[in-house]
Amino acid sequence: MSDPRPTPAELARFNQHFAERIVPLWLGPGWNAEMALPYEALDATHHPLPVQRYRAMACARQLYLFSSRIEQPGAAERAAALFRSLQRHFHDAEHGGWFYSIDAQGKPLDRRKDLYTHAFIVFACAHYWGKVREGLVESALNAALEIVSEQFARDDGLYEASLGEDWADLGSGPLQNPQMHLAEAFLQVLSVRADQGVQQALLQLCQSLQAHFIEPQHGLMLEKPRSAVDNWFEPGHQFEWFYLLHTSALLRGTPLHASIDRAFGYAEQCGVKDAAVLAMLAVDGKVIDATQRIWAQAEYLRALALRPGSGVKLAEQLQAMHQRFLHDGGWYECRDGEGAVSRHDMPSTTPYHLATCLEGLQRLN
């Protein structure tokens, strides 16, 4: 039975929009040359929003972006500048690690140390080191891995979501999203070098997530540990997890992969309505937040590329991405439950999701 896939022309259209309409925003108006940092977001007319802060995570995501498959002039120089800025603006020379954010003048703002930020620093430095093989980049990567292992790691194989400036316990406990991006970061490290310690940490992390975060009936990845009250799941994260696990020879076939694979259909059934990926649902499938976010659409797209028999859905989703989220000026970040555009700004963090989506879609060729 035939399974029609999107045509090369349809994929090329998405890739062209990314290269010609989105990347130039961050080479041009989205770049604060004085600070050597990306602005947090641009408005619909490509002007930076008033500066409240700069986040280390946003800097790291853009480092990944410009050290990826960007062939535009200045991309390599931009990646080098982002790496320098990550160290210059955000690194805590006294306590180690990286601050969450700095203010408009470049002074530390939110001085806490969070796993989400450190996971993206590992991810971006590993990717960048794989491109440039410079000793300074590998030193930053190793330092970030050491911080994650020594400060964030818990006895149960999971990782604290947030710690104080001096690594004091804030009682945050583990949360799903930082653990997922740490798994993504570990996978990126293993893609550029053999690292037995990272491999063992990744396997232990997945084992602990299976034990503490997977809802047993459907196999869903919950946002908080299974014992927490008022829990929920996000379809976008189900699809993101599926992609990460399914594309890893190390993780494919693990109990966590089996759970996420089993949950895929339920997440689709409850969490995708009229080709729109909904934001938050209760375990029983009740919609908590029907917001449609471009990153979740991107994650669903690249996950579908791996699912046999999903050719029609994949083509529909690619069309939905163009019709609902992409426009000549860039993209719409969010639509509400009725489909109306609810955010007109374009955050500097979103191109990371589109870049990884396009990378995943290359598997169709």
How many strands, what sense, and barrel or not for the largest sheet?
A: 5 strands, antiparallel
Oligomer: single chain
Count all strands and give the number.
17
Secondary-structure arrangement, i.e. CATH architecture of the largest domain: Alpha/alpha barrel
**Total domains, how many?**
2
Low-confidence stretches: none
Name of the top-level CATH class of the largest domain: Mainly Alpha
Number of helices: 12
Q: Please tell me what the overall shape is.
A: globular
Short description:
By secondary structure, this protein is an alpha+beta fold.
What can you see in these coordinates?
- The structure is a single chain.
- This protein has 365 residues and is of the alpha+beta class.
- It has two domains: 23-185, Alpha/alpha barrel (Glycosyltransferase), CATH 1.50.10.10; 216-364, Glycosyltransferase.
- The chain has twelve helices and 17 strands.
- The chain has helices spanning 8-27, 56-66, 75-90, 115-132, 135-152, 176-192, 196-212, 235-246, 255-271, 294-304, 311-325, 350-361, and strands at 31-32, 37-38, 41-42, 54-55, 101-102, 113-114, 162-163, 214-215, 220-221, 272-273, 276-281, 287-293, 326-327, 330-331, 334-335, 341-343, 346-347.
- It has a five-stranded antiparallel beta sheet with strand order 10-11-12-15-16. A two-stranded antiparallel ribbon has the order 1-2. A two-stranded antiparallel ribbon has the order 3-17.
- A hairpin with a 4-residue loop joins strand 1 (31-32) and strand 2 (37-38).
- Helix 2 (56-66) packs parallel to helix 4 and helix 10 packs parallel to helix 12 (350-361).
- The protein is globular, with a radius of gyration of 20 Å.
- The model has no long low-confidence stretch (mean pLDDT 96).
- Belongs to the N-acylglucosamine 2-epimerase family.
- This is N-acylglucosamine 2-epimerase.
- Pfam families: GlcNAc_2-epim.
- Keywords: Isomerase.
- It comes from Pseudomonas putida (strain W619).
